[in-house]
Amino acid sequence: MYYHDKRLQYPVTVTNPDPAFARSLQQAIGGVEGEIRVCMQYFFQAWGNRAPTTKYRDMLLNTATEEIGHIEMLATAVALNLDKAPAHLQEEGVKDSIVGAVMGGENPRHQIEGVIHKNLLSSGMAAMPMDSDGVPFNMSHIYASGNIAADMYCNVAAEATGRVLAVRLFNQAHDEGMKKMLHYMIARDTMHQNQWQAVIEELGGTAAALPVPNSFPQSAEDEQNNYNFYVTSLDGSYPEGRWTSGPSVDGKGEFTVFKNAPLGEEPNLGPARADSAAQSEQIGK
Amino acid sequence: MYYHDKRLQYPVTVTNPDPAFARSLQQAIGGVEGEIRVCMQYFFQAWGNRAPTTKYRDMLLNTATEEIGHIEMLATAVALNLDKAPAHLQEEGVKDSIVGAVMGGENPRHQIEGVIHKNLLSSGMAAMPMDSDGVPFNMSHIYASGNIAADMYCNVAAEATGRVLAVRLFNQAHDEGMKKMLHYMIARDTMHQNQWQAVIEELGGTAAALPVPNSFPQSAEDEQNNYNFYVTSLDGSYPEGRWTSGPSVDGKGEFTVFKNAPLGEEPNLGPARADSAAQSEQIGK
Amino acid sequence: MYYHDKRLQYPVTVTNPDPAFARSLQQAIGGVEGEIRVCMQYFFQAWGNRAPTTKYRDMLLNTATEEIGHIEMLATAVALNLDKAPAHLQEEGVKDSIVGAVMGGENPRHQIEGVIHKNLLSSGMAAMPMDSDGVPFNMSHIYASGNIAADMYCNVAAEATGRVLAVRLFNQAHDEGMKKMLHYMIARDTMHQNQWQAVIEELGGTAAALPVPNSFPQSAEDEQNNYNFYVTSLDGSYPEGRWTSGPSVDGKGEFTVFKNAPLGEEPNLGPARADSAAQSEQIGK
Amino acid sequence: MYYHDKRLQYPVTVTNPDPAFARSLQQAIGGVEGEIRVCMQYFFQAWGNRAPTTKYRDMLLNTATEEIGHIEMLATAVALNLDKAPAHLQEEGVKDSIVGAVMGGENPRHQIEGVIHKNLLSSGMAAMPMDSDGVPFNMSHIYASGNIAADMYCNVAAEATGRVLAVRLFNQAHDEGMKKMLHYMIARDTMHQNQWQAVIEELGGTAAALPVPNSFPQSAEDEQNNYNFYVTSLDGSYPEGRWTSGPSVDGKGEFTVFKNAPLGEEPNLGPARADSAAQSEQIGK
Amino acid sequence: MYYHDKRLQYPVTVTNPDPAFARSLQQAIGGVEGEIRVCMQYFFQAWGNRAPTTKYRDMLLNTATEEIGHIEMLATAVALNLDKAPAHLQEEGVKDSIVGAVMGGENPRHQIEGVIHKNLLSSGMAAMPMDSDGVPFNMSHIYASGNIAADMYCNVAAEATGRVLAVRLFNQAHDEGMKKMLHYMIARDTMHQNQWQAVIEELGGTAAALPVPNSFPQSAEDEQNNYNFYVTSLDGSYPEGRWTSGPSVDGKGEFTVFKNAPLGEEPNLGPARADSAAQSEQIGK
Amino acid sequence: MYYHDKRLQYPVTVTNPDPAFARSLQQAIGGVEGEIRVCMQYFFQAWGNRAPTTKYRDMLLNTATEEIGHIEMLATAVALNLDKAPAHLQEEGVKDSIVGAVMGGENPRHQIEGVIHKNLLSSGMAAMPMDSDGVPFNMSHIYASGNIAADMYCNVAAEATGRVLAVRLFNQAHDEGMKKMLHYMIARDTMHQNQWQAVIEELGGTAAALPVPNSFPQSAEDEQNNYNFYVTSLDGSYPEGRWTSGPSVDGKGEFTVFKNAPLGEEPNLGPARADSAAQSEQIGK
Question: What is this model's ipTM?
Fold first, then answer.
């Protein structure tokens, strides 16, 4: 179960509110590489964890719980950036507000509406669980496979795309408070990338973990086709690299190259059944 | 651009059609860990690849193109497994069909309908781009970040969850043809897990790649908070592991432990604006 | 604006309630080929219709309004089929209800739950705007392009897949009342398929309508590539048919065959920008 | 920011695992009336709350934090109910497991697969953030309008549908541990329904709150049409009730009845523009 | 079944077309608080209504039917506001159109495209069933629980958020015709908020209705935990209010305060099964 | 199975990158009328095709494979148009880049962010499988009914809306390279519209194909209601046209007009069950 402290994980301040930047921050809340995703992913991995020990469950709970605080920081940042967004044209202060100044031009209203539609119309100038284009977060992005190694790679992937996004937001930010908040979040992503890789290391490293799941005997897979790079180019050319020769990364095979060709036949499903609502011509005699 | 061969990548045969297994196979077509996902993910990563060389674009194109053939195999397998699914009760052969035999009981119709609704009603006993619960694939699962390392981790994650699924399907399968097809697909997933890790290795390995993106100077991130494991448990207890002490996996820091506490203050957004359609009580004086 | 009559468009009766059939009927309510789709599609086409005359707007309003009554009939049919679905095991009448009889076996509870989950748990044994797998209808399926011919083809497509579904439901139905209701709906689909084609005819027929939009001068399109069938098979073989030779259907060209080959070059997007959060290796110098 | 305790809010035990009931419980996790919804709804309302006081922000944070623990309990319950679900036919214990016993019949495998597809294939027998039909939770269901009264009514609605669901699950449950867990959750829903209504009362009650938003002057709305029940029936008949006569609930008007009739004219959008890709026939002269 | 009148419910006129405002209006069509939602919600509640009387079914049908006319009005308003939106740069009238005038600047084309993308590209300058960010309406927002009180609270919530949105649009509007249309719709929302509350009153008021469902005996819920406000703050502080002491709103209990603490134990799901495609390390001995 | 050639189907060049046009092009990639849709639709129709011959399967494979190349061209075009989009304000070249020039004004950053959010933040200036509003493509738009005529009409509809979109993009384009690419794609849409109609012709034409499915005996449908235009207008007026009199398009009936009226009765679902979590008042005695 869970507790809260009214104070924020890290200071969130905005000197110059910027509605367009609020929209960008939405990607870090409800984008597929955002904080709702990692928070819920770690929770569901923890709650469903099956292992001889509760150690990984515990670790995941710590980081999932930390991530709620990240969503909270970002939601606060969105609201602060929307603070002075004008609701209508006649509103005092539009022209001389920082927003007006940045926007310039005769009529800033339209641009602002174009940028922050739903945050203005639906939530009263607050954050929403959606991305920077207003697409609501879809929980199918919570990856929790029941396999600890697969889950750790999903987590590394989530934190890698998450830190890429945070860096892009940092580059885009122009308010000191926002840059400060992001430089903290970027740091936490560094830790989390390392943390999930540390689990892999603890489990023996990449070579031991691969191929995931390592509990399936490789003798049961097609051993003619498990370490060859398939070339599908028409002329047979291909890019040479670490993946075309030498020992495989998991140390259990040797990379080779295979010019792809069909091993099967043309499928023929035959005529449709009389009662399947096909056209008569499909049913045949 | 692209070419096709009418023949399949690998033989797909079904001796004993099983509509319930057809539904399970749908997860490998349109599930978030399925083949449409990896196919389209590699294509979009290839088409958007920016690098001094086209080498990774080329490699991605080879594997993306290979994956179309995997969707095709699975779609064929679904259709073959639905082959004898009865469209209605009176249909001849229901009782003595293999399906009837497996199902047993007086009236197999209802179970079958419960299992394969949309494949029966919407597609005429064919595969659909949806998962085993009939949820259509949503293209937001195509991860292509523009960062080659982030993308490779996304690909390892996709192939790890993909092979986990394929092994579960293999365990569930009882038809020899299906087991054969899956033992091939499991092998290809082994290769692809190794292949994406091989790119990481070629780029210097995990330590060189992390933290992703490695082009952002770590001096600009919060160096007090980038290698400490945050403990959020009320009593301060935490699971010790590779992530609580010792050098970080990227070799750029030292893991430590931090008992989490708020560094920020309670946020206060203040009263609502008079023109924002809040309740009067929110607007204040 | 709109009016209602409490009575149904056509009688809906169910003698032997069947929860599994209720689930099948959901496809005709909230499936992509269902009645919500056509109803809303015709309404949005009507409301956005731009033409020298309001004639097509009028016609579309008539049929859109008719379709509300079809959703109502199906929703009633779903509720009636769920009428005796047991909410829990101990309920009287489960064993001797028609449902129990059809299901047979020791414990029908599980099968029923498996089949009708959300209709039981979420709506209290009523219809919901979702398909037979419980996937909610998504309004992106309302096609209204602003081009009258494109819209008519979308409507023919909707009614064709709709009638295919209705026939499959008719084949699956075993209750006389349900068969009667469906034989009426199938008839209406016949009319509507003819009706939308009649608009095409009134506008001069297929040859006049194609290529849609017919207001774009064909001299502005690539006249080397507008009537040739592209062959992508590796060996150049292709299926001959009406589409490989002879005058095109629109009478404005001659069908030919083209063995596909690249007309463009390999794209090269070059290195990533230094500030784009790519890996260092992608950025080049 | 947030803390956790490894222990559960309330005991969760399952004596007789039941995979079908696990699926039903999914509705309470990821259904639109489930716990993820209320948890995230209260958090986003709290984080975006604008008022002269932080009082409501505080209250919302307490209950949002409580709700995380409810998701956790349900996720644990799902995992425990899936505990003995067979992964394949040959597995020992299928026949004599409680699941096998309940299911009866020759081959329980198919029914089980039909019921728990994704929980088996995708998550390794764990809970997922989806509903009982496998549809992932969509965050557009997080209602947070920026108006405190509107939000409270959204919360009452969420807890009312939530308790309806919990009662249905209680009625369906047959395991004592599950009944115990649900009798606790039903109690919490009772409190929460009362709690959100208590806010309305504190703000002056229904009459003071309505019409929401109460900050918009009613003199600016159409005072001829704000308290009359519109009758759309063809024959003018209508159901009399509290809403057809007497003072309005908000005490600011008098209910009357209006036989609906168009107050506007037929709209005519006129011909399409020449450059809008309409058919020629739509463009006119 | 249903009838239509070609004339609109209320006059819709636009003197100064404004493409940006058209986009805002989309929120009232296909937003989660928009008119498609209430229309379909009332229809599905009516069609599935189970009660000793058809009275509520009748009432719901009247208002659902009224709401179709609201969608129609808004769709007309969107089309009229898009009327002069330029399709391309060279088009005559761009520079001196009202749109050009409002936008100012050298090249209004880009802003307009940014604002109205899909209404321009997909529908030929017409309304679409999506929100102001172009997200299609998802029918999972149709709440119809089978419990009349829960449904009425859902309806109050829908009309409260709906009127909040309408007021925001009214504040944003600058065209007299649009303000007139909205002042009518705001009035209808006032009626509908009162109407659904009137049903609650007719059923005995809040105290009689709560806790929903009132047909479940409260003696079966956990009577130690049904009227206490849970405090999750680390330091035990909490906001006092109507919800912390005094009789509960439903009059069936007494509000108290409970400093939250775990009542359950740490869950332990134990090792993974050998056949579940977990990592070897999870399976244990 | 499939092969690729690194070169593009047709040249894609961009002289003046335009981030706003990149966003418009996204509609042709991931819009419901875009290229992912047709590509996947033809593949799934091919893979599930049941007929006495594999001829249509073959034809569909050729065109599906061609369409992958179209997605590739558009993805390349999006990336090229994003080439010089500034990631942050300070970046050199913003002011004098073509983008800056077109945008004018003091600070182009905000407009650009408003237009291209996700392409900038999530994909590193590359195409994504989403539409021009950032909504990800949803695979439920892949129509493959198992009925060859229904599928062909779906394909005509897809290519008709597709060409309408391509023409709108052509009208909007101002770069010669983009106009050239689009004039090629428009031509291919011309061919494909003709191609699918050619299949209908080969199967006997519209009269033979309708009503789809033509394998259902029309004697089993309601022959009183299959060729009459239903009039729902209150006053009985209706628009006369090809659909109100004369032989039906399929030649199997005669169009007539029917003033709509209810043929059924008012449905009455009766009281709710005691165990269904309805309100007590619904349950009756």
Answer: 0.92
